[in-house]
Amino acid sequence: MKNIIMEGKFTARDAKEFIRLARKAIEYYNLTGVRYSEGAPKQKYRERRGVFVTLHSYPSGELRGCIGIPYPEMELWNAIIEAAIGASRDPRFRPLSNDELEKCTVEISVLTKPERIEKKDILKKIIVGKHGLIVKRGFNSGLLLPQVATEYKWDSETFLEQTCVKAGLPREAWKLRGTEIYTFSAQVFKEEKPHGAVREVKLT
Question: Is residue 1 part of a domain?
Fold first, then answer.
């Protein structure tokens, strides 16, 4: 069924296609200023899924861009194109050229649908290594991917605090009435080197 929201698993072979598409989208946009268009080769790539594209300089591993679409609003294939172009134009950094792209690795995070969680016993409900977080309060919103918490070895409380900071809120805003907290999971794939082998990242 077209545009159905599903949460199936993907393989490293699928991820290699996703990374190829992300690279093509950035290259094409740099050359033409126009969004790249390509039909999805598999039906499962047309599921509506959230996705993030993260770019790292190689071999330093320095973050070079990370933009995504958190909610399953678009077909995954098209969401990858949008996220890749966005990551190459992450406002925290200068625009990424095609020459520099050749010196970057691409990471793809395919998300499950975010689910709101209640505050009671919240620290026990957030599983570091499995969950990513979204914090919303008023017009402020912040998201951190699951791999961020594992990379920095945060516990669940620190993870909540840092997501609040990402949203432009005080660290303890997650405790306040009216603050909404959502969790999601992700399948994360990354290149070992630019254009290199693609592997799934184990978060635990």
Answer: no
pLDDT of residue 2: 41
**C-beta of residue 111 within 8 angstroms of C-beta of residue 186:** yes
Q: State the residue range of the domain holding 19.
A: 12-112+186-200
Same domain for 130 and 47: no
- 55 closest CA partner among 47, 46, 66, 44: 66
Q: What is the mean pLDDT of the chain?
A: 95
Question: What pLDDT score was predicted for residue 203?
Answer: 81
Backbone angles phi, psi at 93, to 5 degrees: -135, 165
- What's the domain count of the chain? 2
What's the pLDDT at 7? 63
Shared domain check, 128 and 170: yes
* pTM for the model: 0.92
